[in-house]
Design brief:
This protein has 421 residues and is α+β, with helices and mostly antiparallel strands. It has four domains: 91 residues, Rossmann fold (3-Layer(aba) Sandwich), CATH 3.40.50; 54 residues, ATP-grasp fold, A domain (Dna Ligase, domain 1, 2-Layer Sandwich); 128 residues, ATP-grasp fold, B domain (D-amino Acid Aminotransferase, Chain A, domain 1); 95 residues, Alpha-Beta Complex (Glycinamide Ribonucleotide Synthetase, Chain A, domain 4). It is built from 13 helices and 21 strands. Strands 10, 11, 12, 13, 14, 15, 17, 20 and 21 form a nine-stranded antiparallel β-sheet that branches. It has a five-stranded parallel β-sheet with strand order 3-2-1-4-5, sandwiched between helices. Helix 7 runs antiparallel to helix 8. The longest helix has 21 residues. The structure holds adenosine monophosphate (AMP) and glycine. Adenosine monophosphate binds next to strand 8 and strand 14.
């Protein structure tokens, strides 16, 4: 089968790599991919800003299945567009993608279906928001409604901070803002919970905890993700039942009632307080770096899972996992998440031995003249599966010191809650 993957990050390299295990794949394309995907797929330099070019390429090259990695093309309706041309696509449609595209859309569903989440208010102008904030208790959370690549969230400690957050959002820092969301601060531990759905039934797709902050001890600026581990230390049977019954099933029912359905990965970002789940946000895709952390544990054919979702036969598909612990550490360019150098060569990559327990997934990399160059902030994902998280981290640290890339940095404390506490 000829398959195409859309995206260029660590998540998409992991998807390509695990898909490639399937003996049913005859050819793999990646749009636009990175130096890692180039080893197994044909990278095609077509972006998702022009749906028509992409569709023409897919049809001309007889690609039979498309998997969409990132949220933006999903929220922009790429699934609906490609399906009009009878192209098989794994990913949610435009309306269902509002679960990530509009925080207010999701909050309204939470309210109607009594899904546990932080108490919230929606404000349409600066004055009303300020009046409310004067009489609020702190910390408080202020969010832009639209997609903001994880940056449109402010945790404010006092009135002054919240005042400037509201101003920044209404001044268009994250695009045109008609509304903002002000939300109660939830004090617990975060967990990422994943399912896959064909629109009729669902199956669990693992749990993880990620580290979003750039500095050790979970301090400093927010990033796209500095590392993750799976499974989450918080998950247990009782919590899993609560997440499904109080959050996932009511959300899927809500989508049915507005006349649509959910096909693809659904990622619930949760705050767990005393074994009770509260929804912080939905993402309509796998997480990055959670995807790189979870997928190597899969013992089933990923292609069959994607096809079962497109053909609505997920119920009959068995998804098997190995029960190892998985840890992922992200190697970044020095300076990330702010300014960093681009086009810096990474040597020594071939020296690191990889096998079914050790992976390097590329993110911001490019190959030129058989050399690998860093072109992005997050560059490589080092993943190890092991019986113990501590062994996995030791092994990754060994690989990172073998690479010894002096233009990069990484957090040495990924997984500290499951290793050091
Ligand atoms: P989001 O983009 O909604 O995932 O928010 C980014 C991060 O902000 C989350 O991963 C949490 O760490 C934090 N956050 C968002 N909403 C809340 C909340 N209501 N209470 C506490 N922390 C929050
Ligand atoms: N790891 C966070 C995300 O993918 O949004």
């Amino acid at each position: 089968m000829i398959v195409g993957v859309i995206g260029s990050g660590g998540r998409e390299h992991a998807i390509c790599e695990i898909l490639f295990r399937s003996n049913k794949i005859s050819e793999l394309y990646c749009f636009p991919g990175n130096a890692g995907t180039a080893k197994i797929a044909k990278n095609v330099d077509i972006g998702t800003d022009n749906f028509e070019n992409l569709k023409n390429y897919i049809l001309e090259n007889k690609i039979e299945l498309i998997i969409i990695g990132p949220e933006k093309p999903l929220v922009d309706g790429l699934v609906d567009y490609l399906e009009k041309f009878r192209i098989k696509v794994f990913g949610p449609n435009k309306i269902a993608s509002q679960l990530e595209g509009s925080k207010i859309f999701t909050k309204k569903i939470c309210k109607k279906y009594q899904i546990p989440t932080a108490n919230f208010g929606v404000f349409k102008n600066t004055n009303d928001a300020h009046e409310f904030l004067k009489n609020s208790s702190y910390p408080i959370v202020i969010k832009a409604d639209n997609l903001a690549s994880g940056k449109g969230v402010y945790i404010c400690e006092n009135f002054e901070e919240s005042y400037s957050a509201v101003k920044e959002i209404f001044n268009g820092k994250f695009g045109k803002a008609n509304d903002i969301l002000i939300e109660e601060f939830l004090n617990g531990e975060e967990m990422s919970f994943f399912i896959v759905s064909d629109g009729i039934s669902i199956q669990n797709f693992g749990t993880a905890q990620d580290h979003k902050r750039v500095l050790e001890g979970d301090k400093g600026k927010n990033t796209g993700g500095m590392g993750a581990y799976s499974p989450s230390r918080l998950i247990n049977d009782e919590l899993e039942k609560k997440i499904l019954n109080k959050i996932i099933f009511p959300t899927l029912k809500a989508l049915k009632e507005i006349g649509t359905e959910y096909k693809g990965f659904l990622y619930a970002g949760l705050m767990i307080i005393k074994n009770e789940p509260y929804l912080i946000e939905f993402n309509v895709r796998m997480g990055d770096p959670e995807c790189q952390t979870i997928l190597p544990k899969l013992n089933s054919d990923l292609l069959e899972i994607f096809l079962a979702c497109c053909d609505k036969s997920l119920k009959e598909t068995k998804i098997k996992w190995n029960n190892k612990k998985s840890l992922c550490v992200v190697l970044c360019s020095k300076g990330y998440p702010e300014k960093y150098e681009k086009n810096v060569e990474i040597e020594n990559l071939n020296k690191i031995k990889l096998d079914n327990s050790n992976y390097i997934f590329h993110a911001g990399t490019k190959e030129k003249d058989k050399k690998i160059f860093a072109i992005g902030g997050r560059v490589l994902n080092f993943v190890t599966l092991s019986d113990k998280f501590s062994n996995a981290r030791e092994n990754i640290n060994k690989h990172l010191s073998e690479l010894s890339w002096n233009k990069g940095f990484y957090r040495k404390d990924i997984g500290h809650k499951v290793i050091d506490e």
